[in-house]
Amino acid sequence: MVPDNAMSTLAVDTDKIAVLRRARRVWAIASVHGEAAQLAQLHGEIAVRFERGDRLVYLGNVIGRGGHALSAIDEVMAFRRAVIGAHGMFANDVAILRGAQEEMWQKLLQLQLALDPASVLEWMLDHGVEATLEAYGGDPADGLRAARSGAAACA
After folding, report:
1. Rounded Cα distance, 83 and 96, in Å
2. At 106, is the secondary structure helix, strand, or coil?
3. Per residue of the chain (155 residues), what is the pLDDT tens digit?
């Protein structure tokens, strides 16, 4: 039998997004917004100071707005591999959280399910998804035309 207080602890743990165990310091990287060159520069600064026991968290919005979303994702993944490999870390010692830009990207993939896909897409374009859409070879004008044509064209 599990004591009542243990059950409440288990319930709380399942609600957590990430658990950084035995962290000495936590490096938190805020919104990147597709600015891969600036992220690479920041990674260079962190790399010389990163020590065993440190952990790394990306606070979301790796993509969006800036013109280099794919390069920013590649930079995050390369740095993640480098710090894990160099410092005896585990995969869960680096957390990559989803921000508004990643949420919009996920919703963009479900746009055909929206009640008014054109309005939703226009809002997303006004809030930075255009750069990521273009990075993946999409054309915002084509997307708007499809969104205005209905769910089948949008899908």
Report:
1. 14
2. helix
3. 444 444 444 444 556 677 888 889 999 999 999 999 999 999 999 999 999 999 999 999 999 888 899 999 999 999 999 999 999 899 999 999 999 999 999 999 999 999 999 999 999 999 999 998 999 999 999 999 999 998 888 88
65 by DSSP, 3-state: which? coil
The residue assigned the tokens 């746009």 is 111
Q: What angle do CA 70, 119, 103 make, to 5 degrees?
A: 35
Hey, how many other C-beta atoms are within 10 angstroms of the C-beta on 12?
9
Q: Mutual orientation of helices 140-149 and 117-126 as an angle, nearest 10°?
A: 160
Q: Which pTM value belongs to this model?
A: 0.81
Distances from the Cα of 4 to the Cα of 11, 12, 13, 14, 97, angstroms = 11, 13, 15, 16, 31
**Other Cβ atoms closer than 10 A to 130:** 19
First to last CA, the chain: 50
